[in-house]
Amino acid sequence: MKHRTLTLAALALTLGAVAAAQAGIPKGITIAFLPKQVNNPYFTTAWKGGQAAIKEFSGVGKQVGPSDAGASSQVSYINTLLAQRQKAIVVSASDQNALVPYLKRAMQQGVKVVTYDSDVAPDGRHLFVSQASSDTIGRDQIKLLAKQINYSGEIAVLSATPNATNQNAWIKVMQDELKKPEYKNMKLVKIAYGNDDDQKSFTEMQGLMQAYPNLKGVISPTTVGISAAARYLSSSPYKGKVALTGLGTPNQMREFVKNGTVQGFALWNPEELGYLASYAAAALVSGQISGKEGERFKAGKLGERTIGKNGVIILGPLTVFDKSNIDKFNF
Prior knowledge:
By secondary structure, the protein is of the alpha/beta class. It is 42% helix and 19% strand. Strands 2-1-3-4-5-13 form a six-stranded parallel sheet, with helices on both faces. A four-stranded parallel sheet has the order 7-6-8-9, sandwiched between helices. α2 links the parallel β1 (30-34) and β2 (60-63). α2 (41-56) crosses α10, α5 (134-148) packs across α6 and α7 crosses α8 (223-234). It starts with a helix and ends in a 9-residue tail after the last strand. Keywords: Signal. Its main location: other. InterPro entries: Bact_Solute-Bind_Prot2, Peripla_BP_I, RhaS, SBP_2_dom.
């Protein structure tokens, strides 16, 4: 009986916290998610979190978007969402600058714009919900790979599109990290682009091994790229000999971790990223925040969050997945 009483008390506290988080958010707020790609498992998971938050504050949500990762493909969706008078657009941009004129027009019409995962130039949105700081993401990937190749050998990066804002920012940090003395025996020989397309990423990984037969390791800071690269390596003579790390989801990478193709990789929780983006959009629409540095808002189960410099909200640190913990995660 005592245990049941404690459980009910804990449940009441949780519901109370969520209710408090919803306070001040009017029902029926319309929020539209516009990811880079709708058929990308990463964005499907982020949208799952976004939907959960929208349900908590009784909003109305939907996700639309292209099946390719081109910036021009996202423009028509922005125009359609404007015509539909959505209160907020939550977008992961395929290009830092190409969407800005269209998002500015949306803001001029009163639409709140939140970017998540991949940002645009700051004047093209109110807030950016970042998975982690670019510095953390870039440096941690170099550190992961360095340990796997014993700090020595040729390495390459298999990225998304050449214009992808987030990947380019992380790669810049990686190049800076590599200048440190402990990486003096590591050499970045190539940055390849798979365009967040599974088959092209697979082919690019194959091409890297043909062009650089002494390659010791590859970083793929994109969920599409790392899974395609792992698939190539797992059926090649390079399995277990060429290290592969980067950013992936546990469900995509579980097979390759267990069969020895991949030692470890990292990611934040994309479901929580979408969840936080929805609450940030609702806080803007309801007038709780305007996007200024230092403003705070409540984000349901994630607690209170503070807006940082340039309207950036950080989700949290990366989690490293390997054989010891990958079965504890399901996304």
